[in-house]
Amino acid sequence: ARHLLGIEPLHPVEITTLLDLADDYVGLNRAAVKHSDALAGLTQINMFFENSTRTQASFELAGKRLGADVMNMSMQASSIKKGETLIDTALTLNAMHPDLLVVRHPHSGAVDLLAQKVNCAVLNAGDGRHEHPTQALLDALTIRRAKGRLHRLTIAICGDIAHSRVARSNILLLGKMENRVRLVGPPTLIPAGAEDWGVEVYGDMAEGLKDCDVVMMLRLQKERMDGGFIPSEREYFHRFGLDAAKLAHAKDDAIVMHPGPMNRGVEIDGTIADDINRSVIQEQVEMGVAVRMAAMDLLALNLREARANG
Ligand code: CP
């Protein structure tokens, strides 16, 4: 493929190939000298039109560890503030001959649109409620390393599904790899018709978490609630926040995940988040760098091949 815009077009074999390469990069990231020349001579530009800690930092580190020239655009200080459109900004940067463009944007579909206008490889770092493919891939690598496989697992994705691109990409990926996916949350935060996505839907944590291998918690994404109903945090934590009593319904060896940023005491109890016997939240962050290295390495191979073939 030329771009990584979402999980939807990926074949399970492509997912496995990427995760295998990412596994190798975990070793490089843990080594004393963290350097490879896989992206040497290539230019990577990171354009984040929405806030980010994990994704932006890990894409930057990933590019640098692979030897790319990495530039982080400061979108707050860019000419977008003077009224320049996304497409004009993209065309301007395209004229500087980048090889890899990493883009996060608040509007669903904006990254796909931009990818149609440029000559380089585009990686979606999250677009609106649509997709966050590298998050789902890093979640998949974390699950595979913790459970020893990425199929025939029961995985509960809990909380604000309706506003979550992380949920959407994970539902697609985990479904393609033949897992049983459950969505657990209040009806107001689960999209109508979600049952048609090949998942089971639960409105109760005890039922939804019963015998799960993986419990994935999501943040209440108030910034995307557009003035709609926002639940009280106290009430929400009582019914849907992950604490020891609710986690007891999952399997004894179930792992706890959260993509971050995390709101302790709202969707997850801090004690559970910090419990190194159950929580793999820090491993998710570590796998984020390795997965982004693998994604950029594979896209750069395709880019070089396409250029060699004229
Ligand atoms: N999980 C995630 O995308 O985190 P950031 O918003 O900090 O990048």
From TrEMBL:
<feature type="binding site">
    <location>
        <position position="54"/>
    </location>
    <ligand>
        <name>carbamoyl phosphate</name>
    </ligand>
</feature>
<feature type="binding site">
    <location>
        <position position="135"/>
    </location>
    <ligand>
        <name>carbamoyl phosphate</name>
    </ligand>
</feature>
<feature type="binding site">
    <location>
        <position position="82"/>
    </location>
    <ligand>
        <name>L-aspartate</name>
    </ligand>
</feature>
<feature type="binding site">
    <location>
        <position position="104"/>
    </location>
    <ligand>
        <name>carbamoyl phosphate</name>
    </ligand>
</feature>
<dbReference type="GO" id="GO:0006207">
    <property type="term" value="P:'de novo' pyrimidine nucleobase biosynthetic process"/>
</dbReference>
<feature type="binding site">
    <location>
        <position position="165"/>
    </location>
    <ligand>
        <name>L-aspartate</name>
    </ligand>
</feature>
<dbReference type="InterPro" id="IPR002082">
    <property type="entry name" value="Asp_carbamoyltransf"/>
</dbReference>
<feature type="binding site">
    <location>
        <position position="55"/>
    </location>
    <ligand>
        <name>carbamoyl phosphate</name>
    </ligand>
</feature>
<comment type="subunit">
    <text>Heterododecamer (2C3:3R2) of six catalytic PyrB chains organized as two trimers (C3), and six regulatory PyrI chains organized as three dimers (R2).</text>
</comment>
<dbReference type="GO" id="GO:0044205">
    <property type="term" value="P:'de novo' UMP biosynthetic process"/>
</dbReference>
<keyword id="KW-0808">Transferase</keyword>
<feature type="domain" description="Aspartate/ornithine carbamoyltransferase carbamoyl-P binding">
    <location>
        <begin position="2"/>
        <end position="144"/>
    </location>
</feature>
<comment type="pathway">
    <text>Pyrimidine metabolism; UMP biosynthesis via de novo pathway; (S)-dihydroorotate from bicarbonate: step 2/3.</text>
</comment>
<dbReference type="InterPro" id="IPR006132">
    <property type="entry name" value="Asp/Orn_carbamoyltranf_P-bd"/>
</dbReference>
<keyword id="KW-0665">Pyrimidine biosynthesis</keyword>
<comment type="function">
    <text>Reversibly catalyzes the transfer of the carbamoyl group from carbamoyl phosphate (CP) to the N(epsilon) atom of ornithine (ORN) to produce L-citrulline.</text>
</comment>
<protein>
    <recommendedName>
        <fullName>Aspartate carbamoyltransferase</fullName>
        <ecNumber>2.1.3.2</ecNumber>
    </recommendedName>
</protein>
<dbReference type="GO" id="GO:0004070">
    <property type="term" value="F:aspartate carbamoyltransferase activity"/>
</dbReference>
<dbReference type="InterPro" id="IPR006131">
    <property type="entry name" value="Asp_carbamoyltransf_Asp/Orn-bd"/>
</dbReference>
<feature type="binding site">
    <location>
        <position position="261"/>
    </location>
    <ligand>
        <name>carbamoyl phosphate</name>
    </ligand>
</feature>
<dbReference type="GO" id="GO:0016597">
    <property type="term" value="F:amino acid binding"/>
</dbReference>
<comment type="function">
    <text>Catalyzes the condensation of carbamoyl phosphate and aspartate to form carbamoyl aspartate and inorganic phosphate, the committed step in the de novo pyrimidine nucleotide biosynthesis pathway.</text>
</comment>
<dbReference type="GO" id="GO:0006520">
    <property type="term" value="P:amino acid metabolic process"/>
</dbReference>
<dbReference type="Pfam" id="PF02729">
    <property type="entry name" value="OTCace_N"/>
</dbReference>
<comment type="similarity">
    <text>Belongs to the aspartate/ornithine carbamoyltransferase superfamily. ATCase family.</text>
</comment>
<dbReference type="InterPro" id="IPR006130">
    <property type="entry name" value="Asp/Orn_carbamoylTrfase"/>
</dbReference>
<dbReference type="InterPro" id="IPR036901">
    <property type="entry name" value="Asp/Orn_carbamoylTrfase_sf"/>
</dbReference>
<dbReference type="Pfam" id="PF00185">
    <property type="entry name" value="OTCace"/>
</dbReference>
<feature type="binding site">
    <location>
        <position position="132"/>
    </location>
    <ligand>
        <name>carbamoyl phosphate</name>
    </ligand>
</feature>
<feature type="domain" description="Aspartate/ornithine carbamoyltransferase Asp/Orn-binding">
    <location>
        <begin position="153"/>
        <end position="298"/>
    </location>
</feature>
<feature type="binding site">
    <location>
        <position position="219"/>
    </location>
    <ligand>
        <name>L-aspartate</name>
    </ligand>
</feature>
<feature type="binding site">
    <location>
        <position position="260"/>
    </location>
    <ligand>
        <name>carbamoyl phosphate</name>
    </ligand>
</feature>
<dbReference type="GO" id="GO:0005829">
    <property type="term" value="C:cytosol"/>
</dbReference>
